[in-house]
From TrEMBL:
It holds the Pfam family Rieske. It is found in: Mitochondrion. This is Apoptosis-inducing factor 3. Gene3D superfamilies: 3.30.390.30, FAD/NAD(P)-binding domain (3.50.50.60), Rieske [2Fe-2S] iron-sulphur domain (2.102.10.10). One of its GO terms (cellular component) is mitochondrion. One of its GO terms (biological process) is execution phase of apoptosis.
Length: 602
């Protein structure tokens, strides 16, 4: 599954010298990877199915049982973090029944006891992932793994939990997945499912297919050098190496027969013949296709844009290089986008100076509103970030081939050793223009609620699509959020298998800057008012975004888990009216009472 530099034209089994004595084999002890070369590109494929691993939690020595509370210690709708001696669990009581699952969100480790319990699931307070309290299964994203589920029993009015020590320590569970029945029977240039793009949408699609028992061939292809990784960390944790932010290790893809072609770009798709044509001329037939190519960053159009040390952050190498060059140097960031602001925050303590150039007069004005935008701007200014607003870059100047100065249209000249461009992105769909797949005027792929395009068997997901958002009366929207890409991939996979599943998730995003996290749920495009509770100056507030009389989105800093609570309200089909913000809703958030969530309507 791993693309390597081309070294051979013939097909051969390759066993590295240092591994020959170890008889490197697949987990079933039968076969080694095949490397083969087509049109100058070598690829690895694993050609054996793998047995389903035995459950590692069946060993009695690995089990622990403990009394954790009295049955009357918890009321319905309450959660408690309990200690079993060698690890903790989350004990939940709902509708008179007790449940026990892992206590940490598998995504970034948030304490779920501080999350939101509603109608059989718990929602993470940080990033909104949802887990079924009866099974532990992940039901909304971000993240890939589910929670471990533990046995609960009641004896003499005491609650006991029986759990695996390993599960208590890992606090995550990968759902059971199918394997490919026999890859060796396939033509190497054909696949049942082809996934173009190896981001969150593509990976979740592949994993969901395997979770649902799909045992045919799956091939993912990506222009990236790396297996799927946690892309939001490119701007939030810029010195992370690829292996540190990998969503799954290499072994995972071998184990579950998900083949990945790296540094492979699709140049065209023939939907009539069901063939994808790669840039190097290689062709691959498919039965079902998912297009999840994401966005491409916009570049500057001014003089000097090709000068060395001017970056778009697209890969881990880009981010690592920027950090190295920026340390104790002068940095100019163009664009107060999420990426631009996160990069500015990350570099503020490392660089000699950080300057940010933006066309608007307040950062995030269109997304968070002017008042929140000004509060965020003040936080940046207090951390030595200098803003140059309502202006653009007119020229980049060099000295000995490297960036020296950034010239603004206002006439200001900024010293610059490094420039990071964060002025937005465009959908990476140019290769589809002659395909017959419906593309809108902005280049987005148009899909329905099942992530289907206008072409049978062709699905699309992630940042490159517009889809009907249930929250906004099925208005076609583009939601370039990490969480939404996960859900798109899952819905696409389920409908490749003819499940008829429609997307209904509530958008959820987050950004982190200077130790402060902004959570956001809903879709506030076109909001006409912002109702703010709390203190903007202290950066402890919640902002409700309204359109006419209806709350369409919410954002907060230091007000957890209010955004997750609003997300649950919206997910339940409830309408939050503007008049309710100061009274019933806010009081219920303060008391933690979620009883008014029952039912639908306003």
């Amino acid at each position: 599954f791993w693309v390597v530099p081309a070294v051979e034209v013939k097909i051969e089994v390759v066993i590295p010298e240092k591994e020959r004595n170890k008889e490197e084999m697949s987990p079933n002890g039968k076969a080694s990877p095949l490397i083969y070369k087509v049109n100058g590109t070598a690829r690895h494929y694993h050609l054996e199915e793998h047995p389903i691993a035995s459950n590692p939690y069946h060993n009695p020595k690995d089990m622990v049982e403990a009394s954790v509370c009295h049955v009357k210690d918890l009321e319905n709708g309450q959660m408690r973090e309990v200690d079993l001696g060698c690890g903790k669990a989350l004990l939940i009581k709902e509708s008179g029944e007790f449940h026990a699952v892992g206590h940490k969100c598998p995504h970034y480790g948030a304490p779920l006891v501080k999350g939101v319990l509603s109608k059989g699931r718990v929602r993470c307070p940080w990033h909104g992932a949802c887990f079924n309290i009866g099974t532990g299964d992940i039901e909304d994203f971000p993240g890939l793994d589910s929670l471990p589920r533990f046995q609960v029993k009641i004896e003499k009015e005491k609650v006991y939990i029986r759990a695996s020590k390993q599960a208590l320590q890992t606090q995550r569970r990968t759902k059971m997945m199918a394997k490919c029945i026999s890859l060796s029977n396939y033509n190497l240039s054909s696949t049942n499912v082809l996934i173009i793009g190896a981001g969150a949408a593509g990976l979740v699609c592949a994993e969901t297919l395997r979770q649902e028992g799909f045992s045919d061939r799956i091939v993912m292809c990506t222009m990236d050098r790396h297996l799927p990784y946690d892309r939001p960390k490119l701007s939030k944790s810029m010195d992370s190496h690829p292996e540190q932010i990998a969503l799954r290790p290499k072994e995972f893809f071998c184990t579950y027969d998900i083949e990945v072609l790296t540094e492979m770009q699709v140049a065209a798709v023939d939907v009539k013949s069901k063939i994808a044509v790669f840039k190097d001329g290689f062709k691959m037939e498919y039965n079902k296709l998912l297009i999840a190519t994401g966005n491409m960053p916009k570049t500057l159009s001014c003089k000097g844009r090709e000068i060395e040390n001017v970056f778009n952050i697209r890969t881990p190498e880009d981010a690592n290089r920027v950090v190295k060059l920026a340390t104790s140097k002068n940095v100019v960031i163009v664009g107060a986008s999420f990426l631009g602001m996160e990069v500015a925050a990350y570099l503020a303590e490392r660089a000699h100076s950080v300057s940010l150039v933006e066309l608007e007069h307040v950062p995030f004005k269109k997304f968070f509103g002017e008042r929140v935008g000004r509060a965020v701007m003040k936080m940046f200014e207090n951390n030595r970030v200098k803003f140059y607003m309502q202006t653009e870059v007119s020229e980049l100047r060099e000295q000995e081939g490297k960036l020296k100065e950034v010239v603004l249209k206002s006439g200001k000249i900024l010293r610059a050793d490094v420039c990071v461009v964060g002025v937005g992105a465009v959908p990476a769909t140019g290769f589809l223009k002659q395909s017959g797949i419906n593309i809108d005027s902005k280049g987005f792929i148009v899909v329905n609620k099942m992530m289907q395009t206008n072409i049978p068997g062709v699905f699309a997901a992630g940042d490159a699509v517009t889809f009907p958002l249930a929250l906004r009366n099925n208005k076609k929207v583009n939601v370039p959020h990490w969480q939404m890409a996960h859900m798109h991939g899952r819905i696409a996979a389920l409908n490749m298998l003819a499940h008829g599943t429609e997307i209904s998730t509530v958008p959820y995003l987050w950004t982190a800057m200077f130790g402060k996290s902004i959570r956001y749920a809903g879709h506030g495009e076109g909001f006409d008012d912002v109702v703010i509770q709390g203190d903007l100056d202290e950066l402890k507030f919640v902002a409700f975004y309204t359109k006419s009389d209806e709350v369409v989105a919410v954002a907060s800093i230091n007000y957890d888990p209010i955004v997750s609570k609003v997300a649950e309200v919206l997910a339940a089909g409830r309408t939050i009216r503007k008049r309710d913000v100061d009274t019933v809703i806010f009081l219920s958030f303060r008391t933690g009472d979620m009883s008014w969530l029952t039912g639908k309507g306003s």
